[in-house]
Design brief:
CATH class of the largest domain: Mainly Beta
Structural class: alpha+beta
CATH topology of the largest domain: Immunoglobulin-like
CATH architecture of the largest domain: Sandwich
Bound molecules: copper (II) ion
Length: 262
């Protein structure tokens, strides 16, 4: 059992390692800003797992460091340690505790994912095509295509995603959502932006030499501004269609051929 001469140094070491662990969690700004409803839930789960891990990290580190120092061999001591076969009670305890914690995390993760993936009736639907090395956003109901993802604030977005060549991954760090985009199948991603602004969209699956530049923007707009943009984009599509019926629709990225005038 723990000898009283160990308690002082152990307590001190626990304070030091604990303080460093807690400090780095607060001093360093680990996560990007949150811009969607899902982000708070994901971050809550992340920090929950962090703090549980932190407790055990401190415990294990303190015991390890202290044992290395307190029970080191004396110079010239060449003897073996006592023969220990095992300790059933200890092994049961150190199996049950992690198993319990893992079960808790699994349940919490299921709850968070259920919440994050629940769809709202009035969601905005956008189709996303991933191809080496661009993202194309299509608004099928109105025939608009855009290089940026433009979406209204405080309304859920559902992305229906396809890849035209290799596997990509659609990632919006500020929304804390990421989903693979895979040739031959359709994948979905839902999120609810709750802050107006421009956020990065990143391809998170190595997809070829241009993978690093396969980025675009998610532009979260006030509902009025979004409606205006949508109307303008739609008007442009109609005007283009009147002039050249086969011209690709779009704003940014889509209109490679100059429209024929006159
Ligand atoms: Cu990619």
């Amino acid at each position: 059992m723990l000898n009283s001469r160990h308690t002082g140094p152990l307590a001190l070491l626990t304070l030091v390692v604990g303080a460093i662990t807690v400090a780095q969690a607060f001093v360093i700004d680990w996560l990007p800003e949150q811009a969607g409803e899902e982000a708070a839930r994901i971050d809550w789960l992340l920090w929950f797992m962090f703090w549980v891990s932190a407790v055990f990290f401190v415990l294990v580190t303190v015991v390890l460091l202290y044992c290395v120092w307190a029970f080191r061999a004396k110079p010239g001591d060449e003897t073996d340690g006592p023969p220990i076969h095992g300790n059933t009670r200890l092994e049961v305890v150190w199996t049950l505790i992690p198993a319990f914690l893992l079960a808790v995390v699994v349940v919490l993760a299921i709850v968070v994912l259920e919440d994050n993936e629940a769809t709202a009736a009035d969601r905005v639907k956008v189709e996303v095509i991933g191809e080496q090395f661009v993202w194309r956003m299509q608004y099928p109901e109105i025939g608009v295509e855009s290089g940026d993802l433009r979406i209204p604030v405080d309304r859920q977005v559902e992305l229906t995603m396809r890849a035209s060549d290799v596997i990509h991954s659609f990632w919006v760090p500020a929304m804390r959502v990421k989903q693979d985009v895979v040739p031959g199948i359709t994948t979905d991603l839902v999120f609810t932006p709750d802050k107006v602004g421009t956020y990065e969209v990143v391809c998170a699956e190595v997809c070829g030499v241009g993978h690093g530049v396969m980025r675009t923007r998610a532009i979260v707009m006030e509902p009025d501004a979004y409606a205006e943009w949508l109307a303008a984009a739609q008007a442009k599509v109609r005007a283009d269609a009147d002039q050249a019926p086969t011209a690709p629709a779009g704003d940014g990225g889509g209109d490679a051929e100059p429209a024929e005038e006159g």
